[in-house]
Amino acid sequence: MTKSLSLFSVHQQGARLRFIPACCGLLGITLTYLVPVLAQATTLTIASYPNFDAAIRAAIPRYEQLHPDIHIRLVALSFYDHHHAMTSALATGAGLPDIMGLEQGYIGRFAHSGGLEVLSAPPYNALQYQPLLVPYTMAQAQNEQGELMAMPADIGPGSLFYRQDLLAQAGVSLEEMTTSWENFIQSGIRLKQKSIYLVANASDLKDIYIRIGLQPGEGIYFNQAGQSLVRSERFVRAFTLAKQVREQGLDARLQIWSNEWAESIRSGHIATQMMGAWFAGHLASWIAPESKGLWRASQLPAHAYASWGGSFYAIPRAAAHKPEAWDFIRFMTLDTDMQLDAFKKLDAFPALLSAQQTPHMAEPIAYLGQQQARLIWKDAADRMPSIIPHQHDAMAAEIIRKQMDLVLEENKDIATALKDAERQIKRKARH
Amino acid sequence: MHRAWKKYTTIINKRWIPYLYLSPFFIIFVVFGLYPILFSAWISLHDWDLSTSPWDMEWQGLANYEYILTDEWFYRALYTTLWLAIVAGVPQHLIALPLATLLFRLSNRTRHFLFCFYFLPFITSSVAISLVFSSLFSRDFGVLNQVVSGLHDWVVFDIQPLAWLFPEQAIDWQDSSHIRWTIAMVVFWRYVGWNTLLYLSAMKTIPEELFDAAYLEGAGFWQQLRHVTLPMLRPMILLALTLSLIGNMQLFEEPFILTAGTGGSGQAGQTMAMYLYATAFAEGDFATASAIAWLLFVILLALCSLGRRINQKNNG
Is A110 close to B134, i.e. CB distance below 8 A? Predict the structure, then answer.
């Protein structure tokens, strides 16, 4: 036994001795062919956030197949972490990717940062693609000089999601509820009699109303000259509506995306939620999958059209591979198949008009009781007004949110709240 | 030549070797400690947006400080922070001191066993703690409100004896009148164990003879605590109070998670650290945020100096 073992060992050693040079030879051949390929391959770094990153992840195999010389490295962080990381990267000039994904709420600040490539200028000339895309979304990514700083990938047309069974229980019809904001509140009073809240938070009404009826050249918080608009009738009315809802006890006083909010939606304590079209996917997947068939979507009350979110691609000015980055962005935003793929898989409503002209748009959605809801959202997208972003939008939104809070929680006078908001905005925007 | 070189390197070695050994700390400290501190002081005196290189920042002087000192939200955040420092901080020590004394008198085995429970909240992730408490304090689905409601509805001989004490309506622990208490409770619960550890460690350094002498003189538990333990613990009490003050003035995680990052209704739960964070990341104003950080530092320094002076005066 020992002998046979030792014989086997000798045999094995011999095999090993032959095996090593063979491996070295193979490695040499592999390296001879692989090294030049690796040396030629360009690594394109893309920074993104969930679920926007999923569209990129899904596109990588096809893109790399079409472009064997490009290797894509996707860096995805959580939503806030990603935008904070990009803020720091732009501020310090370190750790910048070749392409950064940006959400609508941050686009104003980034577009005015001066740290991004101007995509409307040569060699990109991206404004030539304007007729191919939803009109309002291009305006969102432009600065005060009209320069395009990012390319839109998907949009979030606003919609009123409602529980049709709860409305029926309270004897409220959709037509009646959405005719005007007064009717919307009146419907809430009837829902309250059945112990059902109209909305999760009264400030939802403020968030919608400040986006409605903008005059040409106006942004939400600032006009084209950079003057604050927060003391306009639009804001007074928005605050008044929210206060009415709170005073009548029609809102659940819940923080959106909180556990209590999700539980209240799930358990049927809240009848409506105004949100972007993408909310249907969230309802179906994790908030209330068991409520399949009970929810419906409609246009916002009083024929209002508002945008909730949307995703963009931008190229940092200090990016290492700008031509490759631009090619990838065009692939993701102007290729109908890619846009449709993201629409089907991720519910990312396409910014590309040709991707909206497909049969998928008319397909009924089972979760929404076989409703052809995508047609409603497309209609909203078609009617959406262009809103001019301002670099201080995020700051103004934060100040308005705080003042709204004081009006709702501490009964602060609306005129005083808006006056204080304007003063704070002017001081903050002093730079 | 070789001998001269060897001698030279030996001298070099003898002179520089301590610095060489110390250099990793100093390199790391300069890069990750000193440089960010000095840089934040520098940008607090400038206007800095995302695109501007640090070398092209616009000089603002003290304008950022002036802005903060006239901002009402700064004073609200400062008030909340000081309120929490007192309401969450003082009871920690009022409980931790007698608790440490009690534990000190127990056998080693029992003391270690019990101490594990008191110390557990301190070593648990603050995010996990805050999430658990968010669920407990939930208005509509929280256990706490279910208990309150149950006590309100408790019936004995056809009457509800506790109905006057416990409200029928669910309490909104997140609203502006409750949120600070909610945060204070979580912070108190978390740090009692840590302060108990500090006092317990200090008690072990008190000579046993002092307690024996006090016992022979007929001193009971409270008298021993007042006349032996507390005077001997004075330096540790000062240290523990200073650590609590610093920790509470920098309070961030607990209020941030309990208020979902918003500061709660009417910003009643927004601390200085949250105000700083919102200024930097929600508003994108890093220069003003740096100025807030320096103001917070000055306030902390003043409070710590005040505490030290009071202690010195009492000792003197």
Answer: no
Question: CA B166, CA B149: separation in Å to the nearest integer?
Answer: 7
CA-to-CA dists, residue B173 to B3, B251, B259, angstroms: 79, 19, 10
pLDDT in tens, B99-115: 998 898 888 889 888 88
Q: How far apart are CA A316 and CA A86, in angstroms?
A: 10
Span between the terminal Cα atoms of chain A, in Å: 88
Write out pLDDT tens, residues B66-80. 989 988 889 999 999
Helices (H), A41-134: 52-66, 79-92, 104-111
Task: Give the angle subtended at the CA of B46 by the CAs of B40 and B47, to the nearest 5°.
Answer: 115
Closest CA to A374 of A350, A399, A352, A341: A350
Task: For chain A, say whether B134 makes contact (Cβ under 8 Å).
Answer: yes
Residues of chain A with a CB closer than 8 angstroms to some CB in chain B: 80, 84, 87, 90-93, 109-110, 113-115, 252-253, 255, 257-260, 263-264, 269, 317, 394-395, 398, 401-402, 405-406, 408-410, 420, 424, 427-428, 430-431
d(CA B127, CA B173): 18
- Residue numbers in A near B266 (CB within 8 A): 405-406, 409-410
Nearest CB partner across the interface for B284, out of A87, A264, A430: A87
**B267:A402 CB<8 A:** yes
Nearest to A419 by CA among A232, A237, A244: A232
Residue type for position B159: I
CA distances from A238 to A172, A244, A401, B117 (A): 23, 10, 12, 51
Q: Tell me: the pLDDT tens digits for B260-276?
A: 888 887 788 999 999 99
10 Å Cβ neighbour count for A325? Answer: 24
Closest CA to B103 of B221, B228, B244, B238: B221
Task: Please give the structure tokens belonging to residue A290.
Answer: 């068991």
3-state secondary structure of A49: coil
Full-model pTM? 0.78
Cβ pair A113:B51 closer than 8 A: yes
- On the question of pLDDT at B245 being above 50, the answer is yes
CA of B177: how far to CAs of A93, A299, A409, B106, B267, in Å? 44, 37, 10, 41, 11
Alpha helices in chain B (DSSP H): 2-29, 35-43, 63-69, 72-87, 90-104, 108-123, 126-136, 143-153, 179-203, 208-216, 221-224, 230-249, 253-258, 272-277, 286-315
* pLDDT average, residue stretch A289-308: 92
Both tokens of A341, joined, read 């793929």
Helices A104-111, A393-410: axis angle to 10 degrees equals: 130
> Can you give B80-126 as a three-state secondary structure string?
HHHHHHHHCCHHHHHHHHHHHHHHHCCCHHHHHHHHHHHHHHHHCCH
Q: What is the pLDDT of residue A32?
A: 54
Chain B residues within an 8 Å CB radius of A84: 281
